[in-house]
Write a structure and sequence with these properties.
Length: 66
């Protein structure tokens, strides 16, 4: 039984085709380098800011419900 497998797309607009190409490997390396360039203090700062935003969002939602 010949045919394409369900996991593979032969369409030209396949969003994953770039990752399988040599260009895709360079793209992923650049993305990894961006994450590696951040110092740990920036990750901690972003985590604290995100946590404050989540706490505020929950507080506002609880205030609006009650």
């Amino acid at each position: 039984m010949a045919g394409s497998t369900p996991g593979q797309s032969t369409r030209s607009d396949d969003p994953f085709r770039m990752y399988a190409s040599p260009v895709g490997a360079g793209f992923l390396q650049k993305a990894n380098k961006i994450f590696e360039d951040f110092p740990v203090s920036k990750y901690i700062l972003f985590f604290v800011i995100f946590s404050i935003e989540v706490i505020i969002a929950f507080w506002v939602s609880i205030y609006l419900v009650s």
